[in-house]
Amino acid sequence: LQPITGDKQLILMDIIEDRNHHKTTIFCSQLPVKAWHDLFSEKTIADAFLDRIIHSAIRFELEGESLRKIIKK
C-alpha cells in the first residue's frame, strides 16, 4: 500500500463528496480503519474524507485464519 498524495487525495475527496448520502460505496482494505488516516499526506483532507465515510458506515471485519492457509492444508 502506498500513501495517498497530491491530486489523488483531491480526486478521492471529490468522489466521496459526490456519492455521500446518495450512493453506496464499498471500501476493502487489509489495514484497520484506524490506520487509514496515516495514508493521507494532507491530514485535513484525511479528516474530511474519514468523517464522511466512517459515521454512516456499515462495517464487516473479517477475522480468523487466512483461507489460503486452510485450503493449502
From TrEMBL:
Gene3D superfamilies: P-loop containing nucleotide triphosphate hydrolases (3.40.50.300). Pfam families: IstB_IS21 (PF01695). One of its GO terms (molecular function) is ATP binding. It comes from the Bacteria. Residues 2-69 form the IstB-like ATP-binding domain. This is IstB-like ATP binding protein.
